[in-house]
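User: I'll paste a sequence; please echo it back and then give the predicted structure.

Assistant: Echoing your sequence first, then the prediction.
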Amino acid sequence: MPRHPLKIGGQFQQSAQWQQPLPDGSVATVYLIADQDNLQQAARRLNFVGHGAIIVMDCHGWNLKAAAGKLCLLSIAFMDGTPQLFLIDVLQLGEQVCTLMPFFTNPNASKFTADASTHATVLAHKFGINLAGVIDAQWAYETLQKKTMVRPLEVLDWCGLAPPDFKQETLQLEGTPEVWGQRPLPQRTLTHAAQGIGLLQAAAAVVWKRLAVAFGKDVFEKVSSASRQRAEMAAAAGWACRHAGLFTAEQDYETPDKDSEMEDWLAKRFGKEPSSTSAALRARSAERPKLPETAFRSLVGEGDSPRTAAWRARLAEMNPPRIIPSRQRSASPTLHSWLERRETARAEKRKEGAAHRASSLPSRRRERDQDGGPGGVGSWMSSLVDRENSSWMVESSGWIGKKLGVSHYLITCNSR
């Protein structure tokens, strides 16, 4: 298959093909699909898989059960003479994975998976895809074993198809799920993903035999009905989170900047398939309000399930937080700053000299001339200071008499 690398953040994953020995002794052909051309070829092959054939699928990423989780790698296996394994780089392809929508939504293409609830939720939430035709190995395990399945690895253990080294590596990847986000992916991680989907394909035959023994000839209808109910309930949670606009593929995955409407027109005009995600496929997603990223990032926890995240977002829409504008407050002065201000004020006062008198008052010079000049009050008051027990009747020729508005006034001097 041709290789067309697509850069994502300075790193890229190249499409590749190799032969992978499986633990059961068979050899599978593995296709690593990391570009749009190879993805379209894979979609055509999956659409023409024979009716009634069992197709096995699995998902890899980190925190997939949470709304904030991210799907990184999708693995699909089917028989075409020999085992055929597709490893689809979802992290690099982004929304272009919607090219596989006809395959995922086809109820006649049975898809065996170890965790239908998680896969249905992720596909509905991230890409707006309703997973149909699913066969849930988790339901089979819990129904026949009468206990809850904790991790998909238990299905392989139940079927006796989990080699010790594979189990150990699976547990290590569960402890370091960020490995699935590295680009390019380490070859060891790719080999593990190929072995895992190959083992799950072998386990599908064992599970079907045990289900046939338990439910008889109606096994397919019973298993498919129970699996469909689980997938639909899980997809409803994913759709609720998608309607709220939380952590969708448009937000989580980088995609090349292309004009999808123009490519759709070219495809219809020249009879070619669109090379990017179709606008018609995008339109199948229901309209949803766009919340500010800061709003839902602060409300939704990293471990919240899609259902819980959608519930929190709905509450936030119904009861938006009140935004109280902050008012500026003057800073309280410290002792040091107060002393500086006081010294500055004192220095300015010394430069200016005495305070200015109001213009309505007479000047000091005029007062001195009237009180201290010849005939003024100051001249005769000084002569009265040393006299004892004396009183004088003064005519109102001076300034004081005029101010008082009297013709005469009495000045009395007493001895000390």
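The longest strand covers residues 70-80. Residues 187-215 form the longest helix (29 residues).
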